[in-house]
Amino acid sequence: MATAVIIPARNEEKTIGAIVKTFNDHPETRGDIxxxxxxxSTDNTGRLVWENGGCAVHVDKRGKGQVVKAGLDMLFKNxxxxxxxxxxxxxxxxxxxxxxxxxxxxxxxxTIGVPDFPLIDVPEHVISAWPHISGFRCLPHGLIPDxxxxxxxxxxxxxxxxxxxxxxxxxxxxxxxxxxxxPLSPQRMRELQRDREWGTRNGLL
Length: 205
Fold this sequence. Notes:
By secondary structure, the protein is of the alpha/beta class.
């Protein structure tokens, strides 16, 4: 049975086509690629998903965590898809079928695929957090919390795994790059600050 691929996206037309095509080139993910677009997505992301063999759904939600949770609820409501999923950010560059094989190799627990570290000067706390906040991972779909929220999603998933004493494997993904910029854009900083405030109120930070 193919492993379902879940990709949250907001205006990812520069990268989404290549990502979807690569997942379709892999025998274990071919045909089960679902891109859930944030309500604020306005570009050609959806069209490029369909053109490369994926399924694009525009979700009436804002925020990474909210979009992933809403998409999973739709997908697994009346479905016999595999209980394991791959989560993948829609803005990665350099994804290959070898990366997919690597993340699928461990069959238990959660596997976190660690992309290349940024090639720019960033604060030490960013480098320290890098392996833990990766948006590329394979995990049981039940590990996504009901209150999944924004960029807190990966932190919430990590905490769920710890509470369940789940095996967590970290696998380096050489050549997989995140278009990380520093300093962050003002919009991204505002979004992260809102998520941080939410996480503090809810005991996650």
